[in-house]
């Protein structure tokens, strides 16, 4: 039982700590409400769990054996960095309107965007590699699936708490000026994540 508690603690520490996906969940909840934010949360959780499973089932070994590992990691780093800068730009140029008008309805967070984010998120790759190295390095398929199932539940709950926090802030951000300030603060945090990646 202590192995599963350790897995759960690792998943919680990795999932609840601030990062790009968490900040976007917070922003989605604040701008569009909890229901729309949960689309992002679901996609991000499924995307991360898929990445975790693939790494646990041998993707990392396949990459290492191909000889393209360092190039792929460099590409991932720069792709993730570019994506974070793009997201920060989108937040910074927000007009401060809540997700009620037609333009905002079209820009609602999506399931696919959440999943895509995880595959470009270096934090997700590091958590997947470190987690599988710590708990399933033996290659035991059952252990890989158990760890992924535990991680799925905790990742979803963690990201949902960020979306819920954003939705709770929504009533305080009803003025466009306040929401613009909030979005710009999140944009600065995303840029800080990007700088940290360098």
Automatic annotation (TrEMBL):
Pfam families: LysE. The keyword Cell membrane applies. This is LysE family translocator. It is found in: Cell membrane. Its main location: membrane. It is a multi-pass membrane protein. The chain crosses the membrane at residues 41-60, 72-92, 142-167, 179-197. The keyword Repressor does not apply. Keywords: Cell membrane, Membrane, Transmembrane, Transmembrane helix. InterPro entries: LeuE-type.
């Amino acid at each position: 039982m202590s192995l599963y508690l350790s897995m759960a603690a690792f998943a919680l520490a990795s999932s609840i700590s601030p990062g790009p996906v968490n900040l976007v969940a917070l922003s989605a909840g604040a701008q569009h409400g909890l229901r729309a934010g949960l689309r992002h949360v679901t996609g991000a959780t499924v995307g991360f769990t898929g990445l975790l499973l693939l790494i646990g089932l041998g993707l990392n070994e396949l990459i290492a054996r191909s000889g393209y590992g360092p190039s792929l990691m460099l590409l991932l780093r720069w792709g993730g960095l570019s994506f974070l800068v793009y997201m920060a730009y989108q937040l910074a140029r927000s007009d401060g309107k809540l997700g009620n008008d037609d333009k905002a309805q079209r820009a609602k967070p999506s399931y696919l965007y959440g999943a895509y984010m995880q595959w470009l998120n270096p934090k997700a790759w590091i958590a997947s590699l470190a987690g599988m190295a710590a708990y399933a390095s033996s290659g035991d398929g059952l252990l890989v699936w158990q760890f992924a199932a535990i991680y799925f539940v905790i990742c979803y709950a963690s990201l949902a708490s960020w979306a819920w926090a954003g939705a709770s802030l929504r009533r305080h951000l009803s003025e466009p000026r306040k929401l613009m300030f909030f979005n710009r603060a999140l944009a600065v945090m995303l840029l800080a994540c990007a700088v940290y990646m360098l």
